[in-house]
Amino acid sequence: MSFLLSLLLLPVALFGAQPAFVIRGEIVERDGLARRASLVEQGIPIAPMPEADALRLRLAGTPGFVEPEARDENGMVRWLRVTALAAIPAHGSLPVTIERGPARAPALDLRRSAEGVTAVTPHYTLSLRQPGYMQLAAGGKRFLDGPWSVELIADARGVLWGANLGAFAPQGIEIEEQAPHRATVLLKGLLAGGRMPCELRLHVNTLSLRIRYDWRLTNLTGRKTWLRRYALRLPLAAPFPVTADFLDDWGKGAGIRATDGGRALLIGGLDMPPDGGYYTGQVPDIHRLFHKGMSRTFRGTLIPGGAAADAAEAQAPLDLVLPPQYYSDVKALPESGGKVTFGEFEKPIRAAAEWLISHQWRGTLWWGEWYREWDESRNEGVQEASNGHSPLAPLYHY
Hints:
Mean pLDDT: 84
Distance between the termini: 60 Å
Oligomer: single chain
CATH architecture of the largest domain: Distorted Sandwich
Largest sheet: 7 strands, antiparallel
Number of helices: 8
Number of domains: 3
Shape: globular
């Protein structure tokens, strides 16, 4: 062996090659739908990792990307955000790995100016102009074009309790979160003289034609009120698929409807019935009441240029499944490296978890509601999960 070659190999001999980093999992289809292009967005825990190393990870096995999502008290990355586009047969699965290497996803073209924000992806162009104008186009066709707003109508009790809703006033547009392949754009508005703030978030990414949205209404009037309508209003230029998550839980009178001769789309509580009881059914029969300090958040998906099959896929999200032992090894479970087993308690634990997922996670009222008055009156702070209003609520019971 030549002297030069010996010198070149010396660092490897002394320090060793960098060990391979691989997390193996699979994306699982549970709803009996043949998936053409389902968007998966999920967080997974990891052993503490420096930020620079986490930024060099990628998803392999399907189009997607990986980002640092949460850090511990020492600044080490402890959770990754995984975004993937999956094609899977009904009841099938797709093996994927997270490994070192450059991401295989197109970069997001996000343009910011004094006039507003424009997001350009391979699938659509979203243009937002201050203070509240929006335009969404795909395939050379406009699907949204005009100002957004929120429509509120109080019932008799709300009027008697002093509800003075007034006109919707847009308050501007900003980029709330930005990453190489995705971004969250926030649109703000006010009602009731500034005492009912409204927020609309649009989550854009370069992998899919789907745009996740969530809009929120908060009652900061200082008193409870009753609304028979509380709906996001989007400027419709052409029909296209729009979904709303957990629509069955909203109750009769809620949903999605075109209005103004097809020129606008309403999403939310459209014609809500009078309130019933909290404990009369699987989902509390509370539709109009907004306690002071309480918010309602509604989520769904805009699919410009999509079809009914795309909407069906969006309403039945896929899971990225990792081995149970992995969660113990990275110390995301109390076992902290020990073997994961429930022993003789496995059967009742599974039954309890299934019940929680189908019942209790919906929350004190119903999906999307933050019951902040309870927290305000007891000075215990606002914590979504503590009141069972989080999709992760079942996990906090163990």
